[in-house]
Design brief:
The complex is a heterodimer of chains A (631) and B (351).
Chain A: E1 3-4, E2 6-14, H1 19-32, E3 37-42, E4 51-59, E5 70-75, H2 81-86, E6 88-97, E7 112-116, H3 118-122, H4 129-147, H5 152-162, H6 170-187, E8 194-195, E9 206-209, H7 210-220, E10 225-228, H8 235-248, E11 260-263, H9 267-279, E12 284-288, H10 290-306, E13 310-316, H11 333-338, E14 348-349, H12 354-371, E15 374-380, H13 381-385, E16 387-390, H14 409-414, E17 445-446, H15 461-481, E18 486-488, E19 494-499, H16 506-515, E20 521-525, E21 527-528, H17 532-540, E22 543-548, H18 554-563, E23 570-574, H19 583-596
Parallel strand pairs in A: 1-8, 2-5, 5-6, 6-7, 10-11, 10-12, 12-13, 13-15, 14-15, 19-20, 19-22, 22-23
Antiparallel strand pairs in A: 2-4, 3-4, 9-16, 14-21, 18-20
Helix pairs in contact in A: 1-4, 1-5, 4-6, 7-8, 7-12, 9-10, 16-19
Chain B: H1 38-53, E1 60-64, H2 68-71, E2 81-84, H3 90-100, E3 105-111, H4 112-118, H5 120-129, E4 133-139, E5 142-143, E6 149-150, H6 173-180, E7 184-189, H7 193-205, E8 209-215, H8 231-237, E9 238-242, E10 244-245, E11 254-255, E12 263-266, E13 272-275, H9 287-299, E14 303-310, H10 317-321, H11 333-336, H12 339-349
Parallel strand pairs in B: 1-2, 1-3, 3-4, 4-8, 7-8, 9-14
Antiparallel strand pairs in B: 5-6, 7-14, 10-11, 12-13
The complex binds thiamine diphosphate, iron/sulfur cluster (SF4) and magnesium ion.
Chain lengths: 631, 351
Amino acid sequence: MTTYNDFVIRFANVNGSGSASANGMFAKALFRMGVPIATRNIFPSNIEGLPTWFEVRVSEDRHHGRREGVDLMVAMNAETYAEDVASVVPGGFLLYDNSKGLDRRLFRPDITEIGIPIAKLLLPEFADPKQRKLFKNIVYLGALSALINIDFEVITGMVSTQYRGKDELIAPNIHALEIGRGYAREYLDCPLPIQLRRTSALGDSIMIDGNAAAALGAIYGGATICAWYPITPSTSMAEAFEKHAGQLRTETETGQRKFAVLQAEDELSAIGIVIGAGWNGARAFTATSGPGLSLMSEFLGLAYFAEIPAVLFDIQRAGPSTGMPTRTQQGDVLLAAYASHGDTKHPLMFPSSPKECFDFAADAMDLADRLQTPVIVLSDLEVGMNDNLSEPLTWDDSRRYDRGKVLSREDLDAIEEFGRYVDVDGDGIGYRTLPGTHPTKGAFFTRGTSRDAYARYTEAPEAYTENMDRLLVKWRTAASLVPAPEISGHGHRAGIVFYGSTAMPMGEAMQRLADEGVQLDAMRIRGFPFSQEVTEFLHRHEFVFLVEQNRDAQMKTLLVNETGVDAAKIVPVLYYGGMSISADTIQASVLDHYEKMRLPRLWAVGRGTRGGTPRMQTAIGRGSPGGDSVA
Amino acid sequence: MTFVAKPRVHHPLLPTNEIGLTRRDYEGLVSTLCAGCGHDSVSAAIVQACAELAIPPHQFAKVSGIGCSSKTPSYFLGNSHGFNSVHGRMPSVATGANLANRELYCIGVSGDGDSASIGIGQFAHIVRRRINMLYIVDNNGTYGLTKGQFSATNDKGSTSKKGVPNLYEPIDLVSMALQIGASFVARSFSGDKAQLVPLIKAGLLHRGFAFIDVISPCVAFNNHNGSTKSYDYLRTHAASVVTADFIAAGEEITADYAPGEAETVRMPDGSRLRLRKLDGSYDPHNRAHALEHVLEAQQEGEVVTGLLYVDPDASDCHEILDTVETPLNALGEAELCPGSEALDRINASFR
Ligand SMILES: Cc1ncc(C[n+]2csc(CCOP(=O)(O)OP(=O)(O)O)c2C)c(N)n1
Ligand code: SF4
Ligand SMILES: [Mg+2]
């Protein structure tokens, strides 16, 4: 049986071997054919010589989270060959270079081997060994075009655009493609039963990584200063900001730039620069990951107390620095929420897609100015560094930046009294002034908390507590301004809660669970502090699953601490191995809980059941099968 | 603060500067430092320098780290914004502030603990970045605010108030600044207003990074026999090279090479300090020579004061980054947001 546009292909390579560009071309070719895909780089913290994998999930149903098992493995790394063979699903396919012959001990009767003598084919064609090594990747790309029906013109067209200006590289690349394609057509059963076909499903979608989208969002949101220190997986955000701002914010006549990018000496400096700029009225941000966030903690506390706008993107990864810095995780939730000493807490945003990275980046600039406090966007490697399908980025030209409560020279002339930390409007947010605004009015001395509402030095206990209490009023204001949760489904007994990149496999997981008779209301948390809706969702349900990618259920801790919800109500569904969480993991954990707790579920009625026959209920459902509020 | 509650009553006889302001207009709050603290003299010198330059007081941005020294921005230029930030991290805050608004005069005040220990990394890197600012270290060789621990600028062998000797090598911020490429490097003594005020003026008008290490005795913890940053020690060991003869902006800051007479300066605590004669042969335009001079004097157990190095044609960070003339914080949507049409083109580039 032939299936179309529904498989997982994984390329096992050695890093530094030139596979990245061939694999990138593969993904782009599928995208150009209108085939919905999600890509994942699984790479080591290393520059050359270690194993690296590139996975593409092809799914016309637009299931873009990770799914366990590989349908088609392109095994180009001898070192990982055994585990690569093992990861193929029964009935799957294994493409490999059989120039040297395969270790027969690894033979699997339940999968189809596709041997191509790639090295042998290249030997007579290219004299330069370096070229032969590079073109191995191009040969398998050519073979795949025949095996799974990639439009050949699309690939050759991409080679031509990719090497525009280096024209002498075009012909040999196309030749290498043809070698692979020719061999496959002549000697192999083409095409395989898992195939591609063109669709118009993608409409005007784009393929972009979250970091590039966030960088563009920062540009659109008016950020003028980016201070950063290199750390995977955040580096590409700063680099994308510099690249795009260079194109979009350079004056044509003078060549002068309406932005500044500084690679600081460390993360302490990076956040210090952002805070100095925010104090002086420019929109500034930094991008970092866990270790950097740890270093920034002291400054974040100061900015919280001194009430200075700052925007920080934490592209999370597995900790620590000698942990798995190139693997994804959601392990910085608690650190980000409460970073620093004293009573501090910071508004957080949790983007789930590149589009949201763009939107939240721009919104974070407004939010930081409005709330006069650091705002942290918690992205991660999964959404940040992988090319993903996304709706096109959009911008409303009538949108105006919300610069928050900043008094101008005229404002200062018009008022009788200025107190930097006086809660004039009752929302906990005072009015600020910028250096240089007025010759005689509105200047104040910024320090932590040893001051009164008029920014005068004092260590009086009343002044301190009054200030801390006002900051809580501001915190409540923040709850109404951060992105609201996205809630779907209604009236089910149980719910499922998730955030950030964990949303990616969620649609698929929920569909599979529904097929298994488990119907859940869903809530995607998008911001912290939690709004009333978040609290109500938790209270409304008998129990909720909380899916996240860390060991300690950090979001659970945060929810219990901040909303007072009964901890026993929250059932953690956790994955923290460094790959992104898969639909399979979520499905299995939820079902496991239903079984262990002998919870009733619906019969799967009328829906296509992936797992064959519907599973038996472990307890008898109350109410009628097919009813809405049973499970 | 209530505007009406703080009228400035000027003494009718107080002299005014070119923009009609008196010294009082450049002062800040009353200092809460120990009576006789060298840091207060530095603040006073800043007040005098700014008043003499006739720069509107609100055109300054004051930044500092943490320490007695870092408290001082409260005590000068009361009409400008100040930021008492984080221990050792003033350079980064100054960098951000300067990037945001290149038009303000930026004064950073730090301590020797703040700059030579916890903040030595930031100190080194702000020098490299050439942020256009005046960076002053009130150097008392001790941690004043935490009550008298040794700092990294303390000479090996000098003793703390309790008589404990310092066992470690000292860091000289002046040599460091020279080495990393600061375009204005000076050392002075808090008590030597005649030397310090012109240096501050020159440093403020210098385009690029100006650094002044001001030896500023701590009367509470580092003014005893055995300390090399005490008044008594400096009275006998300070050697002055060049008095920065201040000339208005645009013109080169020249050095008065004429061999001067011995100079007696009145100290804030009433004592008098006698500085060495100027060395007429000193050329402040030669970085290598400056470094050599500092090191040689150090070997002789002397502290060289004065303008050690200046590059009048220096560039600053904004020039390096090629930013627009308009301060970045003054740009609005029209200048910053590329708009939806550009976004359509960007979307197309991701297909
Ligand atoms: C991170 C951090 N560590 C330690 C301190 C405590 N601390 C406050 S001031 C200071 C030393 C200040 O010495 P210096 O910079 O020389 O200033 P001085 O008081 O001598 O003028 C220290 C260690 C702090 N505020 N922050
Ligand atoms: S402790 Fe020393 S440095 Fe601090 S105020 Fe007193 S004299 Fe000055
Ligand atoms: Mg000190």
